Every structure is written in C-alpha cells, then in structure tokens.
C-alpha cells in the first residue's frame, strides 16, 4: 500500500521521498536538478546533455537564522505554466510563455520551511525563494544570500563592474555606467565590488549564458554578482555605503514572502539571448494604466547644446525641430525651473502642444542621498512634494518626467522608484529614469514606465574621449547584454560631426552616419530622445532625416541575425509589416556579411550603407528570391535595410 500511495502522489506531481528532483524544458533540451547534499541546497543546469552548472549553491541567511545549511528535504511539486500576453514596450509585442515548474521545499531543524520555485522554458530558467510563515514570526530581514552560479573553469565573461558607492559626479555612483569587458576569463573577474546584472558568459567556447534578475520592486533590494570565488559568482546585496551609508543593505520581508526572480538564459548561439522575454514572462502588471500612454521619438537639447541651452528660445527651437521631424516629444533638461521658470514653462508647453509635441521635464531625485545639485530639487523624494508637483505637471499638460541621480540599489531606493511610478500614473505621467539602476521587469510591472539609462550612454560620448573611441565596441555589446533584458534610454543618433553646438571642432564623432542611424533600431526603448540638433534640418542629407521621421520605437518582433559581443551586431526588428535590418561594426577592418533574410526574399528594400571612405549613401535594391544578401560594413560603420 505504501508503494502504491507514493506512486499515486508522484503521478500527481508530488514527491515526498526523493531528494534530487529534475525538471526539463517543454522541448527537453534544458534541465535543472535541485538537491540537498549534506544539508546544503544545490542546483545543477544541463543543456543538450552538457553540464553548465554543477551543484551551485542555494540558500540565505536571516536575522532568524542561517538557511543555507542543515536543511532537510520536505517535498517536491511539479506543474506547468502557460500564458499568452501582449506587451507594447519591449522587443516583442505578442508573447507565449510555456514552462515546466518545480517547487522544491526544505526545512531546518526547527521545522521552518521555504521553497525554491523553478520555472524552465525552452531556453530560460527563472527561480526564486518562497518563504512560509514561521510559527509566530511574520517579519524577517534577509541579510545575505548564498545563491550562486557555478561555471566550468573554461568560461569567459562579459561583465560590468559595480561602481564604487558615493564616488563620481556629486557622489552619485553607483549608476550602472561602467563599461563591459569582453571575453575575459572568469578567474580574472575579481573586482572587489562585484558585477552588475545582466552578465553574459561563454562556456567551453560553445554555450552562451545570460544572467539577470527580474521582479524587483519595493519589497526587496536589487542585487548584483560577487567577484569570482572558487568557481562561483554569488548573489550580493547592495553595498552598505550606498545612500550615503543610510539604510539596510538587506531585505526587509514579511512572511509569507518571496524574493525576486533570478534568470538564466541558455543557448548554443546568441539567438536565445537576444530574443529572450524571460524578464517579463514571470512578472505581472502591478496596477492599471490611468490612460493610454503614447510612445515615440523626442528631441533633446542638453545632450549636444548642454546647460547653456536651458533657455526659452533654445527650447522653442527644439520644439520646432521635433515638429519638423514628426517627433512626439521634447525633453527639457535640468535648470528649467530656474532659467525658464514655471510660468514661462507653461507657455512653452502650450507652444509645443500647438505643434503636436508633448513635453518631458527633467527632475533631480535627490534630496538626501548624494550631492547632485541641479534643479528642480527636493520635488521627487517625498510624497507630499511629489504629488503637489505632479498635480501642476498634469494641469500644465506635461506628458512625462525624466528623474535623475538615484542613490543605489537598497530596498528603500527600490521603494522610491515604485512610489514615483505609482504616483506618476495617478497623474497620467510617463517616467524615464536616469543615473539609475537596471530596470528589472518594470516595462510590464509599471504601465507608465518607459525606460532607463543604466548604461554608458550618449552623454559620455560628449564628456569622455575614450568612450567616443569605444562607441562602436560598446554598441555591439548592448543587444546581447544590457538591452537584452530591459529597455535602454540611450539618447543617441548623433548627426553632428562634432558633439557640440558649433559643430566645427572639438569632440569629433568617430562613427559614420549609417552607424548612427542603425543604433536607432539596434537600441530598443519605447520613448527615445535623439541627439539631433536644429542645424541638422539643413546639413543632414534628406534621406537620413526621412528615415528618422518614419522610424518607430516599438516593435512587434525582434530577431538575431549575426554578431559577436564587442565585434559586430546585426539585428532585425519588425513593426507591423515593415522590417528593419541593421548592423554595426566595431572591428578594425571592414566586415563582410552573408545575411539570410527569408522574410525579405524577393522584396524591394532601401539600403543605407557606407563606402570605404565612411561616406553614407542610400540605394534601392531587391533581395534575391533565396533571401540571401552579401554586404560589407565599414569599421566604425553600419547599415540599415528597410522594406518598401
């Protein structure tokens, strides 16, 4: 009878006796095993019969005790999840998610229980901890995690180090603005502060693995990866020195409680990495949108004309630029409250509205956490001032805000992000974050969230010569790492030869026009403020302006075409029936491409490309009926293909 009862339970997906439990993806090639070994909770990942992670650690330490050792298996429950959803702000608009699930439950010597919930889809793993009520205990502090990712020695990595807290401009670090290293052996990844999400790895020169996390909100801090330690990268919580040393770096958690999801994307090519939707598959919207938000392109004076452009006449010129380019928005940056003023700003907003241009206004998030001094200041960091300001913004007709200079990844900062987003939705305002953390599923969780910087973005091209020299290198990384897991407000597409108002000398742009146009597609964000200047209406070729006028910022489909992080990148994106195929080249020599474009087979397309002198031109060509096309990208150059 006992054996029959056990068999019956297993038939319903419940196991009470086995310790090692294995779950596979729907199509069978990706497998995760969870086990308790000598009281330690571990997991392994196998892909195509190759062990990628072996006995990687799980568990955590709380103020109630250590839940990383002395654990006993309780039960394992297997199930499946399937859903279809629409999402208009990410790389795909129609998503179907199918995964097999395993809830693996353990207890400690005091019978305090928690589970690891694992969901495995065809190329993605998502897992989190789910912690039960512990007797009368209803609140705990998770002080650290032992969660780790254990790679084989023959693994290289593509990582960005965590910025040292309270350093940089006005002590505003960390802000996810460190560059990525490419193909570095994991044993050399020993930065004391660790590495930010997302993180890309190549195992045995054959398998790609992308790590990230999603579902972070006000109930947990954002985490990062430790330095490499004996084969493992561990989850680490924020540095206690963030926020000027104020606030816990751990997680204040009510019971029952859950942690954010940690995600692992696996593939034999970069296709699953580029096309993954796992950051959004495992989260749900937290509230309904107060209105239908509209996405699109915008103009932005500060990036090229800088602080001196914060005056009424220059902003009016940028409104006219946006109108001439059929852009939806203009972003007006720091100091507008002092140099234009609220009364004249209302006039400017009305003028923009008369041109069918909406206004985004910049705000400083700071009031207590760093030395950022730009105004408006002390308007976003308290609920009373924030709601008072947002009421004025709504009445004035403002469409959105760009909020800058956040203090780090502690839970109290995550709470501030959520409070800003939630309040803004009440007043019909979209939100862009700058000087900020990585968005972790926020495009789906918060309906009015429309992007974050969290990257070495266009402003660094203006400020730092080395970033200009590495612009193409950085661009080839983003589709595979940063922009693979979240929208990225880059603020690029520079058509000036020099990155300043005079456009005669100074910070010379080192990439071609075709490269710049390609990044308008390569970098995905539903609201993207471009770096055009009013003079471009006269000095840029008409075909380039026409391309930008028609360029969408939302996509129905994204496909990986070719590329290697740090060398070159080729993507295809579709909006309705129009395909955009783009590429950029960071290598020292021209790159010959043999593209397979079955979705454009036999079609007439426009091709924008560079010649060997870096001059950009356009032509109309017909894709062969076999869908194959050969072309060359110049060094520091790019190309764009658009079907007619």
From TrEMBL:
GO terms for molecular function: hydrolase activity. It comes from the Bacteria. Residues 304-455 form the Glycosyl-hydrolase 97 catalytic domain. Residues 23-285 form the Glycosyl-hydrolase 97 N-terminal domain. Signal peptide: none annotated. Keywords: Calcium, Glycosidase, Hydrolase. Its cofactor is Ca(2+). InterPro entries: Aldolase_TIM, GH, GH-type_carb-bd, GH97_C, GH97_catalytic, GH97_N, Glyco_hydro_b, Glycosyl_hydrolase_97. The keyword Nuclease does not apply. Residues 554-641 form the Glycosyl-hydrolase 97 C-terminal oligomerisation domain. Monomer. This is Glycoside hydrolase family 97 protein. It comes from Leeuwenhoekiella parthenopeia.
